[in-house]
Structures are given as structure tokens and as C-alpha cells.
Fold:
Amino acid sequence: MKGAKDLICITCPKGCHARVWMEDGNVIIKGEVCKRGKEYLKQEFLEPKRILTSTVVVEQSRSKRLPVRTRTGIPKREIFRAMDELSKVKVQPPIKIGDVIIPNFLGTGVDLLASDDIRD
Structure:
């Protein structure tokens, strides 16, 4: 069990504990975990992803910042690069909640979305 990790599933409030490792090219999961939990733990072991929430600058508006988020998770290893990229982003109204601010953010295949409306 070299490289084994103890992980906690977060797909539901139960918080099931499991030990996860690679063996002969397969991900092995030991613990009482449901099907959804197994999918989550495999992903978390191989390449953890996180939904990024932050803000970007709004120009020519009374609102100074626009809350944004990624549509789905991006690789956890990209979070610092993503935050650096967001520090350079400037948008202008009008913006509606759900508008795509940056398509295919950082080449991840995941869009960056507006999380609020800005009219002025």
C-alpha cells in the first residue's frame, strides 16, 4: 500500500472514511463507501478538483468587484495560477448572472461564470 492516502468522502453528510492507493495500475478503495463516493474518492486520489470562487474588477460601474466561479471543478494544482490570472481580469457592465466571463478558463475546458448581475 505504498502511496496510500486516507480520505474522507464529501459527496453526502455521512463523511465516510476510506484508504485509497494504486495497485497494478488500478485505484483500490477500502472502506464502506457508496458508488458515488467511490467515484469521488478515485477522482480525489488521481487528480483533485475544486470549484474556484473569487472576484474580478469591474470598470465603469458603481460596483467595484464581480463575484465569479468556475462552472465545475478545475485541477487543484491550478488554483494559484488561476488566482494570478483572475487578478488581471477586468469586466464592464452590463453583466448577468451566469454570463461566461472566460470560456475554457486556463485551458481546463471549464468556463468562468459571473455569480451576480451588474447593470450600471
Remarks:
- The mean pLDDT is 96.
- The CA atoms of residues 77 and 118 lie 31 Å apart.
- The longest strand covers residues 17-23.
